[in-house]
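> forwarded from #structure-qc
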C-alpha cells in the first residue's frame, strides 16, 4: 500500500489553494473558446505549468491553432505564429544577421522564435534543417547565429501542431525532437452539444480578441515555482520507476523511455497536483498523464499490432500500484 502521506487527504496550504484557484480560472477562460474540451485544455495548462513544450496532433480545423492563441492571450504572453512549409528556412524562424551601413557592422534581426509563446503550425511540413533549428531553441532556450548565442525570452513555450503523418506533404518528426515535447494531445471532433454551441455562438476569432489575461506574469511564475515544492512520496517514485522499467524490458516496446522522459513525467504530475489543489502527487496524477506524456516517445513492437497509445495504456493497466 502507499504511505499515509499519499493516501490520506491533506489540507492544502493557503499558497497551494490560492494558486490552484488562479489556474482553475485560467482553464475556465480557455474553455470558453475551446468548447467541450476542458480535459484537453487542463492538460495543456499542466504542460505549460511544468515548463514543457506541447505537441497537438489532429486533423485540420478542430481548434489546434485556436487553443494555442487562447493560452497565450490568457497568460498575457507575447505570441508569434510560424506557418511551417517545405521551403521554410532556419533563418526564417530564428532570425538573420544583416549588415547595417550606418553602424558598419552586422546586426542581428530576431525571428519569430523570440516570443514567449511560439506556435509552430503544421511543424511536420517543414524540412529536417528547419526542424533542427527549432530543436535547439526548445532544448537550450537559446539560438546560435554566426557563432553568437542569443537567449530566448522567459518564459518560453513552443506549441506545435501537426497533421497526421499519412497526409500529403508531411515529414515525420525524428525521435530526438519528439522527445523534446513534454506532452502530445489530440483534440478530436466536438460532441454534438459543443458543436451546436460553436455553430450558434460568436465567431471564435472575435472571442479570442476579447480575451484578457487571466493571471499576471508574476502569478504564473509563482505557480511554476510552487510546482517544485509539491511533495512526492518514496512509494510514488517506486511506482514511477516500475512503469519506466516496464517500457524497457522488451515485452511492450522496441525502445523504452529515457530518464529525461521520467523526469518530465514527474514534473507534469507535480503540475497536475497543483492544478488539483493538492500539495502532493498521487498515483492518479501519473495515470492521467501517462499516455499523453509517453506515447509519442514510444515505438510499439511490430508484432503487437497496436498503436503506441493503446500499448502504453495496456502497460499502465498491467502495472500494479505499489
Amino acid at each position: 500500500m502507499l504511505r499515509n502521506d499519499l493516501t490520506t487527504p491533506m489540507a492544502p496550504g493557503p499558497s497551494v489553494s490560492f494558486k490552484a484557484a488562479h489556474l482553475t480560472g485560467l482553464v475556465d477562460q480557455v474553455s470558453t473558446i475551446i468548447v467541450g474540451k476542458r480535459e484537453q485544455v487542463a492538460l495543456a495548462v499542466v504542460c505549460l505549468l511544468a515548463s514543457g513544450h506541447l505537441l497537438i496532433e489532429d486533423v485540420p480545423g478542430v481548434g489546434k491553432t485556436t487553443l494555442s492563441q487562447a493560452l497565450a492571450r490568457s497568460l498575457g504572453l507575447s505570441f508569434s505564429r510560424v506557418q511551417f512549409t517545405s521551403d521554410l528556412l532556419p533563418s526564417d524562424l530564428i532570425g538573420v544577421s544583416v549588415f547595417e551601413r550606418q553602424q558598419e557592422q552586422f546586426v542581428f534581426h530576431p525571428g519569430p522564435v523570440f516570443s514567449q509563446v511560439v506556435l509552430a503550425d503544421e511543424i511536420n511540413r517543414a524540412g529536417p534543417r528547419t526542424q533542427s533549428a527549432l530543436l535547439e531553441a526548445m532544448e537550450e532556450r537559446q539560438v546560435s547565429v554566426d557563432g553568437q548565442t542569443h537567449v530566448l525570452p522567459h518564459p518560453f513555450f513552443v506549441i506545435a501542431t501537426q497533421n497526421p503523418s499519412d497526409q500529403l506533404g508531411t515529414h515525420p518528426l525524428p525521435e530526438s525532437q519528439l522527445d523534446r515535447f513534454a506532452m502530445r494531445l489530440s483534440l478530436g471532433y466536438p460532441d454534438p452539444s459543443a458543436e451546436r454551441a460553436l455553430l450558434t455562438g460568436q465567431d471564435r476569432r472575435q472571442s479570442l480578441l476579447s480575451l484578457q489575461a487571466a493571471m499576471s506574469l508574476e502569478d504564473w511564475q509563482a505557480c511554476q515555482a510552487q510546482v517544485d515544492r509539491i511533495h512526492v512520496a518514496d512509494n510514488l517514485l517506486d511506482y514511477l520507476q516500475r512503469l519506466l522499467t516496464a517500457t524497457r524490458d522488451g515485452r511492450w516496446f522496441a525502445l523504452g523511455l529515457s530518464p529525461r522522459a521520467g523526469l518530465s513525467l514527474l514534473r507534469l504530475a507535480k503540475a497536475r497536483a497543483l492544478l488539483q489543489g493538492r500539495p502532493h502527487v498521487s498515483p492518479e496524477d501519473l495515470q492521467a498523464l501517462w499516455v499523453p506524456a509517453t506515447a509519442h516517445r514510444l515505438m510499439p513492437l511490430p508484432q503487437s499490432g497496436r498503436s503506441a497509445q493503446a500499448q502504453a495504456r495496456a502497460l499502465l493497466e498491467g502495472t500494479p500500484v505499489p
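QC bot note: The two ends are 6 Å apart (CA to CA). The longest strand covers residues 95-100.
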